[in-house]
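anyone else get weird line breaks when pasting these?? whatever heres mine. first is seq + tokens for prot A
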Amino acid sequence: MKLLIKNIQSRAFLNSWFVIAACIALIGIFFSRAMISIGMIGIVLLYILNQGWKINFFNRSGNLVLLFLAPLLFIYLIGGLWTEDYSYWFERVQVKIPLLFLPLGFFAIKDSIDRRSVDLVIVLFISVCTATSIGSFVYYLLHYKEITESYKHAKTIPTIIEHIRYSLLLSIACFAAAQAYSHSTILTTTLQKRLVAGMGVFMFVFLHILSIRSGLLALYATGFVWLLIKVLENGNKKLLWLIPGVCAFLIAAYFFVPSLHNKVDYMVRDVNRFVTGKSVNNYSDGNRLLSMKIGVEVALEQPVIGVGSGDVQMAMNEVYKNEYPDIDQHNWLIPHNQFVYVFTALGFFGLIIFIACLLYPVFNKVVMTDLLCVSVLVGAYTSFLSEATLELQQGIVLVTLLFSIAYIRIFSK
């Protein structure tokens, strides 16, 4: 029995288990929710396989960074005390369980994992993002006229998963490719490095053709934050001259990339309808803005503790029904902003805790000097402005799994 336990805890076994579980979860993001669950369970089991409870969690303050979003699970649990819709509350709590248990699996192997294992998972992630984006790009070329025209009506190039989260994955993958090109331990030849660099360049170009604002915002916000970090590190202010060059590139892209041009024009028209008080029924951006407006109004009725973590949907529906009869029921949304959602559910009490959680890793030097960690954090935080990212399984995995992989890579050997 002791020999069996020793074999299970062996470094090679733990690395193999990690690679398999992480790859299943990552592939599941694109192809199967069941695979996401299986992969996450596999990672959580690492805590048991390596007897994580025997490892001193507080021997390094950095261990807490892995759990930076876990308090969100606990405040959602507390929010059940003043909730009426316990069915919806249970769904909200259930989807956030990985915020606590997934990082514990990574914590248990943080000092046992090999750099090659983590780099292998990252290269797989880059490859899957590239392969799926090539598929969408080919489809776009085959239906160029129809798809370009559809961008005038809030449509996009078909993608393998919901386009907003997909664009965030591509943004992170671009920076993962840049880091892999420079520092990956499994890319040993010039050809391999050039291939990964080419993947990164392709995804960068495709993001502009796809023209999803969340992805582009994440891409350029990450670039801007990383540029500032490098300026502060090196004191080389000449790097700031890249900013006007990037602005010029974006202006040129607006005029020369038809899908981007049509997307921006549609957005301006859509937002203008909302601002001028016209009906935004069946208008994508207007509906999102209206959901945020209603969310804030609902939250201000209970500004301290909110309506309860299970009553957001019910409270929103009530406002839509009574005050916006022109909005079809299938357009009744939860607040399309994670900050507004938390404010609606848990008031200033929850919002302050949530913002504190987001700020915690920003003050960790190890995190903020790693390109992949920064890209995941900035990508997630920018997505919170237009999506309730953490209310969906894919969003939870996108943030927690990718950040944990990036973080343990720093400590791998």
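and prot B, same format (seq, then tokens)
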Amino acid sequence: MKKTMIKVALVLALVALVAIPAMAAAQKVSLVACPINFPDGVTPPPGGGFVIFNNTSGRNNLVMTLVLRGVAPDTAYDIYLGVDAWGTPGKVGTVTTDADGCADFHLNTSVTPGTHTLNVDVTLNGSGIDIYELPGIHDDPMGGVTMTFKSKK
């Protein structure tokens, strides 16, 4: 229990360090169980998490932090990031949860200047089976987080 509390405190401190420098630009969104694979009446997976998007004071640098808590322990998940079109999201990494079902994933990448809709999908490693995602990615029009990125000067 004490070990878990220390981990939570460290993650919160890390999230604060990422979010505070450009707080006005940062957006935090909770992950939900994929409604296609876990419709009403189907028990969703345990736990969940959230994603924080930050565009570094409006520049074209996307900083993404994905946090999973209380999900399946000792399990690998693939992380996908969709920018504007969800039909072909790009795999940006894999994260493995610890014995408590906790994991953190960080991404720092450039995005073309302009306004973009961002989406995240979390699947079981190598399976392509959607487990967690941002709300609204299966809606028409597609939901997600909208952010504006400016060119570097």
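btw re prot B: Confidence is low (pLDDT under 50) at residues 8-24. Helices lie at 2-19.
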